[in-house]
Each structure stands twice: as structure tokens, then as C-alpha cells.
Specification:
single chain; 422 residues; alpha/beta; 5-stranded mixed sheet; 12 strands; 41% helix; 16% strand; globular
């Protein structure tokens, strides 16, 4: 009997503790709804937000309702901000409080860019965005800012690839397909049941693209109108040119800090380590496109034809990492050229950790595998042997030796000069 009474007493204490916690959270929640934090106070839904050219009436109303849900969720996330900040490395409550369609994206282009009138282009562009466990508000903001910035005559299709997101934890991503299916433009929505990796997803997207050019983007970026014209101008001048914008970075855990960058040549050594270069250019030509050894992987435009000729991304690479260097290498080896375009800018939301999953392997393992495979495919044997001596990748790369041979055959087929093997 004494034992039963003790158990009942413990259960009563636990129930009382639950009630106290519930009342505390409810009180904080109630106060939060009516005393909004500074980052939310002026960022309410704009009911005068105009309907975009690709939105039907139903899609427009659906977007506004979805935005209300996201902003309400931002207030709830504020209650457990530290937990959500750790989830994917963003300040989620702050980002969810921003409108899906923003009009105050900072413009860091050189002033001379503003006076340039680009030729009208007839190129049809396939926009490819792949994502994994992405923050819904970031994903929608990326898609809408890009589509809003592309002239109607240049937009061909949107290819959205959900690379095996965990919908149990990121259930709000289920809202994406119903929304984009209402748009009055061509949308291809693909979902992989398993996480296949960024490289696989982008290769797949490029293969099914039917536009003249592809615009490949991360799922956490924003752009302004005028972003695509400088890229089109360069790619239209030669189908063997690849064009990449200049990046600005927003580390959202520090809400007010945007890191602007000067357009710079990206270089790497024979082990694929980045090499710092002088970012300064003369003020008279700071707006002009310039050649670069490599590009960042978050945004670039290329012709579908030349990507197909050089077999897109190298065979055998896994997850993500170094695919942007490998692609640039093939452009230079196979008669193409790689350009940075200062008059095209991208605001990149930088996470404190990568939201990309790596399956059973760690990010460092994918990096080493991909680097070893690239060096084995395109560099002299002594370079690979030296790399292997420091990183022990020979057994791992040997498993993909057929893919290495396929990469070499692409160069032979296209009569590439293979400078990297000298």
C-alpha cells in the first residue's frame, strides 16, 4: 500500500510539473504573439504584395496564406531559438519572419553596371535548384527571387529536385509541390526517396533540362532583377563559356552582417586547395567580366549543349565537393572558358554547417574521395601518388576506376588538350 501511495504521489508531482511547463510556455507564447521581438515587429505579411507573372490567382492566394503560416511559425521557433539555430545552422526564427518575396535585397553591383544595356537574348533557360532538408522560407525565397528576375522570354522551365529530405523533421517541405504545381509556367518537380547527393542531383537535373542553357543554383540564395542578363550575355557570346556571378554572404546568426566580396580570380593548386589571389581590379574595369580558373558551386550558367559534350560532372564523384573545380577544369581543357561576372550578384545565405546529408560517410570522406578521383582522372600519376601518400585514397578511388577511365575518355572524345596532365 505504501508503495502504491508513493507512486501516485510521484505521478501527481510529474503532472504538476507538466502543467507548470505548459502554462509557462503558453504565457511566453501569448506574450510573444502580442509583443513581437524586434526582428519580427515590422516584417508582417504585405497584403499589397503584387501577384507575380507566373502565379495564378489560386497560387497567389496560396502563397500569401503559406507566408502567414511561416511567419506564425517564426514566433513559435523564437521560443526554442537555440534548438532551431542548431538544426541546420541558420537563425530560423529570423529567416522565417522575412517575407517570401522581398523588395529590399541589397544591391552590391559596381556602379558602372547600372548603365549597361545588354542585348536582348532569345536563349531559353532551365533553372535547376536541388535541395535537402532546406528551410522552407529560404527555398521559396530563392525560387521566387530568381523567377521574378528572369525575363519571361528567357524563362523555359523550373526543375526542382528534393534530394531525399527528411520529411518527418522537415514536414513543411510538403507545401512546396502543391504550391509550384499551381504556377502558370513549366515546373518539373522530382523527389528522390534516398539522399543521392548534390552532384548526382545536378547531373540528373542537367540531363532532363530542355532549355538552351541551364542556371544551376543553391536553394538558399536571393537575386535582384538584372541578375541574369550579364550571365546570358557571356554565355550567348560562345556556347563553350560558363559564367558565374559574384557572391555576397549573409551569416544569419548575426542578423545584421552581410559580407560583401570583391570579384576575384579563384585559383587552386594541384591538390585542389584554394589559393588566395589579389581581389583588386582597377576602378575603370571593375565591372567587366574576367577569366578565372574555377568558380564557386552555388550559382552559374552554362549552355546545355557543351555540358552534354563534356558529360556534365565527372563520373564517380559522391555527395558534394570539388564538382565546381572539376567542371571548370574540363571547360579549360576542352576549349571552353570560365568567367566571373561582377555585374551579376548573388546573396548567399551561409549556414554555420552544411544542410546537405552525406549518407553513411562524413563530408571529409566525400571531399577526399572526390579530390582523389579528380586528380587520378586529370593529373599526372606522380601527383596522385603524392596525394595518396598524405591521404590514403588509392583503395577508395580504385573502386571507381571504371569511372576514372570514363572521365579520361570524355577528354579523348572531345580532343581536349589536358593541360592538367602535363
Amino acid at each position: 500500500m505504501w508503495l502504491i501511495r508513493r507512486r501516485i504521489f510521484i505521478l501527481q508531482l510529474l503532472l504538476l510539473a507538466v502543467i507548470i511547463v505548459f502554462l509557462t510556455l503558453f504565457t511566453e507564447h501569448y506574450q510573444l504573439l502580442y509583443d513581437k521581438p524586434d526582428c519580427i515587429q515590422t516584417l508582417t505579411v504585405n497584403q499589397d504584395d503584387p501577384r507575380l507573372y507566373f502565379e495564378t490567382d489560386k497560387a497567389y492566394k496560396t502563397r500569401l496564406k503559406l507566408q502567414e503560416k511561416i511567419i506564425f511559425g517564426a514566433r513559435l521557433k523564437k521560443l526554442s531559438q537555440e534548438v532551431f539555430n542548431e538544426r541546420e545552422g541558420y537563425n530560423e526564427s529570423f529567416l522565417d519572419s522575412l517575407p517570401i518575396q522581398r523588395y529590399d535585397i541589397p544591391d552590391f553591383r559596381p556602379k558602372r553596371c547600372l548603365g549597361i544595356a545588354y542585348k536582348r537574348s532569345g536563349t531559353r533557360v532551365s533553372v535547376i535548384i536541388n535541395f535537402h532538408n532546406e528551410l522552407l522560407s529560404l527555398l521559396l525565397r530563392s525560387i521566387i527571387s530568381v523567377l521574378r528576375s528572369i525575363p519571361k522570354e528567357n524563362f523555359h522551365e523550373l526543375i526542382l529536385i528534393d534530394d531525399g529530405s527528411n520529411l518527418g523533421q522537415h514536414f513543411d517541405l510538403l507545401e512546396v509541390e502543391p504550391l509550384v504545381s499551381l504556377w502558370a509556367v513549366k515546373v518539373k518537380y522530382i523527389r528522390f526517396e534516398e539522399n543521392m547527393g548534390l552532384i548526382y542531383s545536378r547531373r540528373f537535373g542537367c540531363q532532363i533540362a530542355s532549355g538552351d542553357a541551364v542556371l544551376i543554383l543553391d536553394s538558399h540564395v536571393e537575386v535582384n532583377p538584372g541578375f541574369i542578363e550579364p550571365l546570358l550575355d557571356k554565355v550567348d557570346s560562345n556556347y563553350k563559356f560558363i559564367a558565374a556571378p559574384t557572391f555576397d554572404f549573409w551569416h544569419t546568426l548575426n542578423k545584421n552582417k552581410v559580407w560583401t566580396t570583391e570579384a576575384r580570380i579563384l585559383a587552386f593548386d594541384r591538390y585542389l586547395n584554394w589559393i588566395n589571389t589579389d581581389a583588386k581590379k582597377k576602378e575603370s574595369n571593375i565591372h567587366e567580366p574576367f577569366k578565372t580558373a574555377a568558380i564557386l558551386g552555388g550559382a552559374y550558367m552554362a549552355s546545355k549543349q557543351f555540358l552534354q559534350e563534356i558529360d556534365y560532372f565527372g563520373r564517380g564523384m559522391q555527395g558534394w565537393g570539388y564538382e565546381n573545380i572539376e567542371l571548370a577544369m574540363k571547360y579549360w581543357m576542352c576549349g571552353g572558358e570560365v568567367y566571373n561576372i561582377p555585374c551579376s550578384r548573388v546573396l548567399h545565405y551561409a549556414a554555420e554547417r552544411s544542410p546537405m546529408n552525406h549518407g553513411d560517410r562524413k563530408k571529409a570522406e566525400h571531399y577526399l574521395h572526390n579530390a582523389g578521383l579528380i586528380i587520378k582522372s586529370y593529373f599526372p600519376e606522380d601527383v596522385f601518388n603524392d596525394f595518396d601518400l598524405h591521404h590514403n585514397v588509392s583503395k577508395d578511388v580504385q573502386k571507381d576506376i571504371e569511372e576514372v577511365e570514363a572521365n579520361v575518355n570524355v577528354l579523348k572524345k572531345n580532343n581536349c588538350h589536358r593541360n592538367y596532365r602535363r
